[in-house]
Amino acid sequence: MVWEAKTEEKFKLLISRIPVFHRRITESVVFKQAEDNAFLRKSHQVEDQDVITAFFSDVPSPFYSMMVRLLEQSGFDYKKYGFPKSQS
Questions:
Q1: 81: which DSSP letter?
Q2: Three-state DSSP class for 2?
Q3: 64-73 and 5-16 helices cross at what angle (nearest 10)?
């Protein structure tokens, strides 16, 4: 699947900032989930919202604060897409 250029650039930047021992698994899991998210939206390209949704759905809670910080540092506006979701 095609990735929107700026989304792919931000994703690569974010991945480069993840600690080495988590980088490969995070990249593969989030990459696949982002593409699945785009497919479910019936889109032909991966966009910011797909990557953001993938991170919020697949990152274990102990890494949550680091993920939020890295999303912000990499230019992803997760609040624009309603994250973090309120927990009931």
A1: G
A2: strand
A3: 130
Task: List pLDDT tens digits, range 11-23.
Answer: 999 999 999 999 9
Rounded-to-integer distance, Cα 38 and Cα 45, Å: 6
pLDDT in tens, 54-79: 999 978 888 889 999 999 999 999 99
CB < 8 Å & 24+ apart, contacts of 20-23: 22/63
Tell me the residue type at 21: F
Specify the pTM.
Answer: 0.92
In this structure, what token pair is assigned to residue 12?
């690569």
Q: Would you say the C-alpha torsion 68, 38, 30, 61 has a positive or negative sign?
A: positive
| Structural domain spans, the chain | 2-81
64's tokens: 């949550």
